[in-house]
Structure formats: structure tokens, C-alpha cells
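Duplicate of #3305? Posting structure anyway:
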């Protein structure tokens, strides 16, 4: 009988030392928390901002040579994670100029270049980088000639607009009859 008591005491001590028998020690739980924090930190480092995307476009445009680059403010239109860059040129961009722009973007991490077919003789490509997608279009339209960069990201370091609270859009309460 005394041996059973010692065995029960030993099991109780072992259970307490191993974290109540859950199978995971406190060290393993801390290690999981550290790994999760590292993953979130890495994601934040990889997250592109609007300024970073505009920097990529500016660097690429420098190789094209001539033209005037502008960035309309897309945050005023309710989409803070969209970058539209317009490079206006006097004539339709030559294929060599567009290829040099693409080479710079590829060197800056934009990958999965995919040619987009065009019926009007223009040039178009689709590319991605860290959760962002960009379409590059080059050619001539009635508004003029140039290259348009249209990038859209899911996360860009700024808070996304939220939907209004239900109380803001719901009709007022109906009066209750006595």
C-alpha cells in the first residue's frame, strides 16, 4: 500500500513539472510566441508602402529618359493602397524605353512579369511584389502618349477606411405606441 502512495506522489510531482500534463512545457509555448512575433515582424518588413512603390516607379522612369511623371492622390478617392503614376511623353514610348523601365522594376523586386495582349498596338504588363499588383501600360491614347503605372496593394502601412457603424447608416428607431 505504501508503494502506491509513493507512486501517486511521484506522478503528481512529474505532472506539476511538465505543465499539468498538457504535453507542452512553458518553454515551448514561449518559443511559439517568439516565432509568431518574428513572423509578424518579417511581414511588416516586407510590407510595401505607397512611398516605396512610388520610389520604384520613379527609379524606373529615370531610365526612360524624357517625360513628366505625376502621381494623383488616390487616398482622396478612398483607396490609400493604390498608386497610379502617369509618365506623359511627346510620342508613344519606344519598346526599348519600356524594356528598360521593366528591367529596373524587375531589379527592384517586381516579378512574375506577364505580357498583357493589346489590340490597339499598345504595350502592357502585369507584375507583383509583396502583395502588390501592378499593371504597366504604354502607348498612345487620345489624351496623349506615355506610360501608366497602376499598382494596388492589400496592405500598405496605412489604416484602410472602415465601414460606418450600423447606427450611422440605420434609420432612427420607430416610436413605440402606448
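Output from current build:
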Amino acid at each position: 500500500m505504501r508503494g502506491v502512495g509513493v507512486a501517486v506522489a511521484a506522478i503528481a510531482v512529474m505532472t506539476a513539472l511538465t505543465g499539468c500534463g498538457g504535453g507542452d512545457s512553458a518553454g515551448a509555448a514561449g518559443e511559439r510566441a517568439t516565432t509568431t512575433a518574428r513572423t509578424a515582424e518579417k511581414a511588416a518588413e516586407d510590407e510595401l508602402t505607397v512611398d516605396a512603390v512610388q520610389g520604384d516607379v520613379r527609379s524606373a522612369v529615370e531610365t526612360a529618359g524624357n517625360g513628366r511623371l505625376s502621381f494623383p492622390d488616390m487616398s482622396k478617392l478612398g483607396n490609400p493602397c493604390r498608386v497610379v503614376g502617369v509618365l506623359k511623353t511627346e510620342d508613344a514610348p519606344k519598346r526599348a524605353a519600356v524594356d528598360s523601365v521593366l528591367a529596373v522594376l524587375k531589379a527592384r523586386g517586381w516579378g512574375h512579369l506577364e505580357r498583357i495582349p493589346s489590340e490597339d498596338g499598345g504595350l502592357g504588363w502585369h507584375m507583383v511584389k509583396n502583395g502588390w499588383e501592378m499593371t504597366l501600360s504604354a502607348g498612345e491614347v487620345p489624351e496623349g502618349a506615355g506610360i501608366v503605372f497602376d499598382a494596388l496593394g492589400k496592405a500598405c502601412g496605412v489604416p484602410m477606411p472602415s465601414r460606418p457603424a450600423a447606427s450611422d447608416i440605420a434609420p432612427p428607431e420607430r416610436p413605440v405606441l402606448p
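Confirmed duplicate; merging threads. The chain has a mean pLDDT of 74. The beta strands are 68-70, 82-89, 111-115, 123-129, 132-141, 144-153.
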